[in-house]
């Protein structure tokens, strides 16, 4: 075996600490380790990682993707608009909710890239996803524009 799969990630055998890690650890990895430590706020890295994660999820529908997002506590996604060219997805209760507001900052590119990877796999062709709102920017939720 030369790589891990999402199925492998579900194999948890921690008798004492269980299957959860604190949100502050995830935030620290994302926003201090990647966002602050890497060039361009780690955007190239998080986009590559997110797309791969989305592809590996193995979901076959938008509903399945949204259910997984919620079960994994990534956020609660809701389609706010959809037509033949794409959709808008609002994500409530995102990992960044409650962080200090920093105007002009959008920090949820990993989550958008996960959506992009999963939707590209579901549709069988590349889609693009762009974050247009973020709690850290001062918006009421994080939001993504998906173009088919």
UniProtKB/TrEMBL annotation:
Domain of life: Bacteria
Domain 4-vinyl reductase 4VR positions: 86-148
InterPro entries with a match to the protein in the record: NO_sig/Golgi_transp_ligand-bd, V4R
Database matches in Pfam families: V4R
PANTHER family recorded: ARSR FAMILY TRANSCRIPTIONAL REGULATOR, DNA-DIRECTED RNA POLYMERASE SUBUNIT I
Name the UniProt record assigns to this protein: 4-vinyl reductase
Lineage, highest ranks first: Bacteria, Bacillati, Bacillota, Bacilli, Bacillales
